[in-house]
Specification:
Layout (H helix, E strand, L loop, with lengths): L11 E2 L1 E9 L5 E9 L2 E13 L3 E12 L2 H6 L3 E5 L2 E11 L4 E9 L1
Antiparallel strand pairs: 1-4, 2-3, 2-6, 4-5, 5-8, 6-7, 7-8
C-alpha cells in the first residue's frame, strides 16, 4: 500500500462528475455531466498498452490520490474523472489511512 502523499505532490486539479440522464424538449434522453467536486490530486501512471481487437486501442491505467471525501467514496464507480479534458472511467476507490485520503483507480481507451 502506498504512503499518503505530501501536500506538494497533490498538484493536479481534477474534476469528478456524475453522468445524469435528462430529457430534452422533444422527449429524447441525453447524458450530461453533473459536477460532484474538483479536488487537488496526485497522479501516478500505472501502465499503458495497446489492445488489438479489430482495431488498435491504447489503454491507459492511472491512480489519483485525493483527500478523503464522503461523497466520492459513497458514489464510487458511478463517477467519471476528468483530467485535462479527458474522461476516465473510475474502476475502484480505496481508502488510504483512516479518513485521510482516497486512491481512485481509473482507465481510458484512446
Amino acid at each position: 500500500m502506498e504512503k499518503n502523499p505530501y501536500i506538494g505532490q497533490m498538484n493536479s486539479v481534477i474534476q469528478l462528475v456524475e453522468k445524469v440522464k435528462t430529457r430534452t424538449e422533444t422527449g429524447s434522453e441525453i447524458s450530461t455531466n453533473a459536477p460532484v467536486c474538483s479536488p487537488f490530486a496526485k497522479m501516478t501512471d500505472i501502465s499503458g498498452n495497446e489492445v488489438v481487437d479489430g482495431k488498435v486501442k491504447h489503454l491507459v491505467n492511472r491512480i489519483y490520490v485525493v483527500r478523503f471525501n464522503d461523497v466520492i467514496k459513497s458514489k464510487g464507480t458511478a463517477l467519471v474523472l476528468i483530467d485535462e479534458g479527458r474522461e476516465f472511467e473510475v474502476i475502484h476507490i480505496l481508502e488510504l489511512g483512516r479518513r485521510q485520503h482516497l486512491e481512485i483507480r481509473v482507465k481510458i481507451y484512446e
